Amino acid sequence: MRHLISMLLQNEAGALSRVAGLFASRGYNIESLTVAATQDIDASRLTLVVFGDDTVVEQIIKQTAKLVDVIEIAEITRREHVERELLVARVDAEAVAIDACLAQFGGRLLQRSGDQSVAEFTGRADEVDAFLDALGQAGDIVDHARSGIAAIERPTAACQK
């Protein structure tokens, strides 16, 4: 099963390595790992995706929570959340084909030079996969980069105004 784990981590040398090491030592490949600063300069948000057994992942999360660098950790897979991933792709195709793809998916053209275009798309991982497939049908994907998933829980009813 796919597990989406979100944590706040202290900005300290080696903190990310210790978290990733716990997953690796249990034989779990991290499919996606995204780290970025938060509004607190002393903390970063780390979002990771792993596939595996529910019980084992639960144990790893409990062990990760005990690390001194971890401020907060939660598996948000089954919670109400918002997740997004950014794709930037360079495609060799006719402008009309790329423009049709962008219009269909709500992507954005960043640059065009001759028959090569650089496009951007943001969405859930499955939407990014679908957009990438559509780009591949429109032309040759010369290169692409994916950001990894960023996710956050939706606000609870008590927090909404």
From TrEMBL:
<comment type="subunit">
    <text>Dimer of large and small chains.</text>
</comment>
<dbReference type="GO" id="GO:0005829">
    <property type="term" value="C:cytosol"/>
</dbReference>
<dbReference type="GO" id="GO:0009097">
    <property type="term" value="P:isoleucine biosynthetic process"/>
</dbReference>
<dbReference type="GO" id="GO:0003984">
    <property type="term" value="F:acetolactate synthase activity"/>
</dbReference>
<comment type="pathway">
    <text>Amino-acid biosynthesis; L-isoleucine biosynthesis; L-isoleucine from 2-oxobutanoate: step 1/4.</text>
</comment>
<comment type="function">
    <text>Catalyzes the conversion of 2 pyruvate molecules into acetolactate in the first common step of the biosynthetic pathway of the branched-amino acids such as leucine, isoleucine, and valine.</text>
</comment>
<dbReference type="GO" id="GO:0009099">
    <property type="term" value="P:L-valine biosynthetic process"/>
</dbReference>
<dbReference type="InterPro" id="IPR002912">
    <property type="entry name" value="ACT_dom"/>
</dbReference>
<dbReference type="InterPro" id="IPR004789">
    <property type="entry name" value="Acetalactate_synth_ssu"/>
</dbReference>
<keyword id="KW-0100">Branched-chain amino acid biosynthesis</keyword>
<dbReference type="Pfam" id="PF10369">
    <property type="entry name" value="ALS_ss_C"/>
</dbReference>
<protein>
    <recommendedName>
        <fullName>Acetolactate synthase small subunit</fullName>
        <ecNumber>2.2.1.6</ecNumber>
    </recommendedName>
</protein>
<dbReference type="GO" id="GO:1990610">
    <property type="term" value="F:acetolactate synthase regulator activity"/>
</dbReference>
<dbReference type="InterPro" id="IPR027271">
    <property type="entry name" value="Acetolactate_synth/TF_NikR_C"/>
</dbReference>
<dbReference type="InterPro" id="IPR054480">
    <property type="entry name" value="AHAS_small-like_ACT"/>
</dbReference>
<keyword id="KW-0028">Amino-acid biosynthesis</keyword>
<dbReference type="InterPro" id="IPR039557">
    <property type="entry name" value="AHAS_ACT"/>
</dbReference>
<dbReference type="InterPro" id="IPR045865">
    <property type="entry name" value="ACT-like_dom_sf"/>
</dbReference>
<keyword id="KW-0808">Transferase</keyword>
<dbReference type="Pfam" id="PF22629">
    <property type="entry name" value="ACT_AHAS_ss"/>
</dbReference>
<comment type="pathway">
    <text>Amino-acid biosynthesis; L-valine biosynthesis; L-valine from pyruvate: step 1/4.</text>
</comment>
<comment type="similarity">
    <text>Belongs to the acetolactate synthase small subunit family.</text>
</comment>
<dbReference type="InterPro" id="IPR019455">
    <property type="entry name" value="Acetolactate_synth_ssu_C"/>
</dbReference>
